[in-house]
Amino acid sequence: MNKIREYMNRNMRQYGMLIALIAIMIFFAFATGGKLIWPRNVSMLVRQNAYVLILAIGMMLCILTGGNIDLSVGSLVALVGAMSGLIATTLGWPDWLAIIISIITGLAAGMWQGFWIAFVRVPPFIATLAGMLVFRGVENIILDGKTLPLLGAYEFIGVRSIPDIAPKTLPDFLHIGDLLRLENKPEFLNVTALAAGLALSVIYVVFIFFNRRSKILRGYEVAPLGSFIGKAVGFFVFINVLAYWLSMEEGIPVLLVIVAILFVVYTFITTKTIPGRHLYAMGGNAKAAELSGINTKKMMFLVYSNMGLLAAVAGIVNAGRSMAASPIAGVNYELDAIGACFIGGASAYGGIGTIWGAIVGGFIMGVMNNGMSIIGWDVFLQQVSKGLVVLFAVAFDMWSKSKSKVS
Amino acid sequence: MSEYILEMDNITKEFPGVIALKDVTFKVKKGEIHALVGENGAGKSTLMNVLSGIHPYGTYTGNIIFKGTECRFRNIRESEAVGIAIIHQELALSPYMTIAENIFLGNERAKNGIINWDETNKKAIELMKTVGLNEKHTAKIKDIGVGKQQLVEIAKALSKNCELLILDEPTAALNDEDSDHLLRLLQTLNREKGLTCILISHKIHEVIKIAHNITVLRDGRTIETLDNSEHVSEARIIKDMVGRELIDRFPRHSAKIGEIGFEVRDWVVHDPLDEERVIIDHVNLYVRKGEIVGLAGLMGAGRTELAMSIFGRAYGKRISGTIIKDGKELTLRNVSEAIANGIAYVTEDRKTAGLILIQDIKRNITLANLKAVARGSVVNEDEEIVVGKEYRERLGIKSSSVFQKAGNLSGGNQQKVVLSKWIFANPDVLILDEPTRGIDVGAKYEIYKIIIQLAEAGKCVIMISSELPEILGITDRLYIMNEGRIVGERITSEATQVDIMSTIIKSSAEGNRGSSYEQN
Q1: Interchain pair A285, B357: CB under 8 A
Q2: Which CATH code, of 3.40.50.11690, 3.50.50.60, 3.40.50.720, 3.40.50.300, is assigned to B4-242?
Q3: Which of A106, B114, B116, B168 is 20 to 30 Å from A294 at the Cα level?
Q4: CB-CB neighbors (< 8 A) of B377 in chain A
């Protein structure tokens, strides 16, 4: 029992954020009379917030370097959209080429900023403030104030779901539609979503089981059995419930696949690799990191280059979702991403924060958005609430830190 | 009223794990220049911090009586209010503001919150004349030299009508001419305005020339107060400063010393902020395998700068010279190349430059050598835990587990984590900078044992320390450094503290040839 408690204590932050998300979801589920968890709204939640989640992943890395932020990502999202519109629509080149060039544009923009920040030592706040203006200006020059339509691959990425392998075969066998008292009950389920959910959850459980066994065999320390089983069961149930929910709508949104892949990749990089370690070390104490042989300039350059890359992905996603390259795309997106990171437990001084936290923080903002919209709250009131949540999240963080310092 | 302007009785001040001051009694007569001398860590600065309220009432025990009334300062403002001003080694001036603005910083000549610039400037010019500062009052601090900055500090203190001025190593960063000027100014202010001064200084010859009384501190205790009207001898003061008994405070070791493993030749380093200024001046040194070599010297002698410049140019500009390891010349352009070539530097400042305080023990240990616990670029966290546990046991790091944050450990245990990190990096040459600073006696002994084990494993160890007994206790050979130069080399068994101190002081005095002081 003591062992479980010690293990829980060590990982308390992560559980705390998840508990906050679940509490907010339960609150809005009741407040909206269950509408919040209708399959349509769950699917919407993912689609509407994909851009925040993608940007928050990149932003978390910036914040980890020492509380630095990137103010230019909103403008970059718009610039990438404009490049896509220019190439795919105005020039009429193939979509795949437009996507590749757009991504290169984002990466180049990120490297540009990384250069000034890492090697010329322009403070990130200022370098990215400049980027915010420059990218927005270039975008407007390209679009000349006009909105260009974007269909094809962009539409597929932004609004479509993974196609059903066996349409109209499987009815809602658990009768969840009746249980939730949906307005439009689905007749059939999306088999792809169900099968993918089941396969993924089984693979995961088998993987962590064998991983644990091999660790025990090699004499490494493992999590207590109780917490291991809890984690496995929790993941299994969560994935399959989510899959069932999505199968009642159109299936797995392409956006969810993109976000999931980025989540896994960046979690791996930050937690399991040497560059990830170096990132946390420099955020924790830049001087000590340098004296341990870490090239902090190079890390800074890579982090901001990567932010440009992810902003490009978010730009393509955003253009796809609105099926257009719009001159006013991406306004205030940087603030959403920064907010998500701080709600998700990032330290304003760097060195503390996880990709998982950024995602949970993004979802907390998303659930609040959706919930408040469904209830019918005024948009301005929604802004007030979101602002206060960011403030209280960081205040809570400061408070808990000052308490832990005493012990 | 008694003849004393200040009486500090039985002051005891403890930091976690260390007693910094123990029953210190310190009395200053009205209108005198009273010098406070002692080795680094003897408690001089702590005593002055207690006096000026930086360590507030309640964090120490004992009484402070100033001008006949007992004082319980809670902060600097309260001590300033009664007329005590302190000028620290690191000057507290705002570089982009003018001299006049700095003199009245925090004490602005204002009415209803609006600054009266005419009065500010007039008063500033008067004060500048008093301290002999020959600059325009509108010059910015960053544009005047350190010597003149010191004068601004003194003018600032005078503007607050201070009656007791404390100067902490005021001449440490000054050249001879500026030092001369400053000391003469102190004598003039003392004579003409009756200003009482407490002067903390390492430069014994200065102290003897201008002080009326000299109090010596050692290991947080008052040794004695000497009447300097007849000019006390340097030897007497040095004996007081270092004369402590050594009873088995150091583990014994039998050195099996091999061939020369590491050598630095003709090493020259310039100040990164002022590339004309030479910080390290043609230093030559070598270390044999299995040998512990000490670098003795006072604060500011250039030992840390020497070590860091060797460690992949982590300090300094325009570095020249040769580093030879195992007979081969090395070119080290950055820290990671130094580490890759088997050189490690354990910083003197473990909290700000050695540890990631918000991370746990195991992560701190592996940081400089992550490749050893990784396959390709992927870190094996399980292996990392194993490494953490191994070092925790081997070096005796007292902690709840390897998951404990480094910031929650005591000083001695933090130092063991830093040492673990560098031992895990598996270097051939270890440079240890003040490895036992701020650590209690018991933990020091354990650190010494670790250092000796490293030497016995055939590594070249360079140990920088300001504590002479420590250097004499565990090194095999030592270099004496002063003002960026090696001024002496001794086989440790033949060296004494008095000898080392005199060598340092003599070399400073030689550097000061031609300067003259007037004794009032």
Answers
A1: yes
A2: 3.40.50.300
A3: A106
A4: 273-275
